[in-house]
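User: Can you recover a sequence for this backbone? Please restate the input before giving your answer.

Assistant: Of course. Working from this structure:
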């Protein structure tokens, strides 16, 4: 029996109605304690139990992409571990990779609270966090210390955002300043220009603005760390095509599709309890199930436009192995979860991986890599 789904989640979500951000902070604090390498015997025991219960290893799930080895295709999306305080725990929870951040050059408190809401009827979340984090220098110091103590078992990405205090016209320098501090500490990097919660940020997806950022970063990127750009689901096909062109021009490792959506179409939730307003009247991005189909559509479009030549990390509304398989067969080499993991609980990753292995067997495939873009290929 899944204790999380049948006891813990109903208690916190429905009975106690715990504030979503407070609960997240307590969770990340626990994970931070567990991720310390010089941990106490009780924490070591918990880690071993987590690994035994939540991890699934199978060579058919492994991939080598942009010079990194991924033990499985399911990663933790950015936003959960904003400051990299629990970087050492994610492999024990079954993930094949994890993305830290979003981190900005300047430390910032983010937007006023409350700023994170559950939309239970929609299996979704609405957030307007605003890149709250301790800043790139603090993350760099923490990761440098951890690197001395041990190596990560899975690839660790770092998601870079623009500081709110930095004007849009000097955004490229802001991203560069963060990258300089962190470039030796992450396995890959993500340029986040698609959060709806920093004023004007999404305008940086414009080809000329994004070009300036990527140009500076790649000039600095002498060790050729893989760099991705994370895009919004609300972009037009023409705008996505422009970003694909930039990805080729600046030899990016790939594209992450997609961030949260500003669309409110089809939501079942009428009123958010904490504010008494409808989701339509609340600022922020929606993640979870309402995003699923659109993000898959964007993945398919990128895969078709690039003939599968640019790796895609698919994120948005993944709750099950069926959702994961849809993303992968649409063209995603890797996938990321966040909201689905909150709703489904820690056993979700293992369930997805087991389901993917079953789907490989049903399809007569030997490797998860063989499934990438399968849906598009079958239509040709």
């Amino acid at each position: 029996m899944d204790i999380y789904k049948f006891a813990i989640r109903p208690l916190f979500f429905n009975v106690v109605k715990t504030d979503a951000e407070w609960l997240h902070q307590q969770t990340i604090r626990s994970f931070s304690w567990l991720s310390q390498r010089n941990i106490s015997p009780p924490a070591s025991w918990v880690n071993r139990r987590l690994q035994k219960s939540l991890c699934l290893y199978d060579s058919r799930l492994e991939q080598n992409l942009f010079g990194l080895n991924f033990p499985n295709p399911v990663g933790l999306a950015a936003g959960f571990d904003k400051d990299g305080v629990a970087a050492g725990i994610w492999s024990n929870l079954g993930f094949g990779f994890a993305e830290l951040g979003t981190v900005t050059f300047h430390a910032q408190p983010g937007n006023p609270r409350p700023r994170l809401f559950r939309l239970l009827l929609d299996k979704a979340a609405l957030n307007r966090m605003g890149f709250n984090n301790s800043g790139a220098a603090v993350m760099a110091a923490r990761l440098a210390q951890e690197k001395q103590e041990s190596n990560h078992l899975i690839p660790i990405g770092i998601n870079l955002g623009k500081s709110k205090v930095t004007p849009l016209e000097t955004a490229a320098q802001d991203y560069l300043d963060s990258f300089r501090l962190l470039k030796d500490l992450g396995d890959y990097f993500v340029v986040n220009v698609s959060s709806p919660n920093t004023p004007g940020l999404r305008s940086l997806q414009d080809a000329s603005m994004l070009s300036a950022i990527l140009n500076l970063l790649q000039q600095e990127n002498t060790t050729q760390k893989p760099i991705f750009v994370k895009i919004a689901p609300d972009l037009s096909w023409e705008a996505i095509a422009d970003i694909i062109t930039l990805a080729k021009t600046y030899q990016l490792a790939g594209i992450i599709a997609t961030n949260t959506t500003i669309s409110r179409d089809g939501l079942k939730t009428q009123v958010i309890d904490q504010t008494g307003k409808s989701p339509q009247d609340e600022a922020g991005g929606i993640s979870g199930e309402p995003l699923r189909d659109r993000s898959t559509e964007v993945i398919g479009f990128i895969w078709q436009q690039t003939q599968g030549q640019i790796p895609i990390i698919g994120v948005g509304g993944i709750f099950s192995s069926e959702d994961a398989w849809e993303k992968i067969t649409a063209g995603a080499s890797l996938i990321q979860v966040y909201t689905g993991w909150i709703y489904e609980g820690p056993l979700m990753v293992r369930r997805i991986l087991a389901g993917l292995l079953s789907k490989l067997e049903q399809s007569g495939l030997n490797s998860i890599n063989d499934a990438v873009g399968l849906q598009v290929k079958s239509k040709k």
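That completes the design. The longest helix spans residues 20-35.
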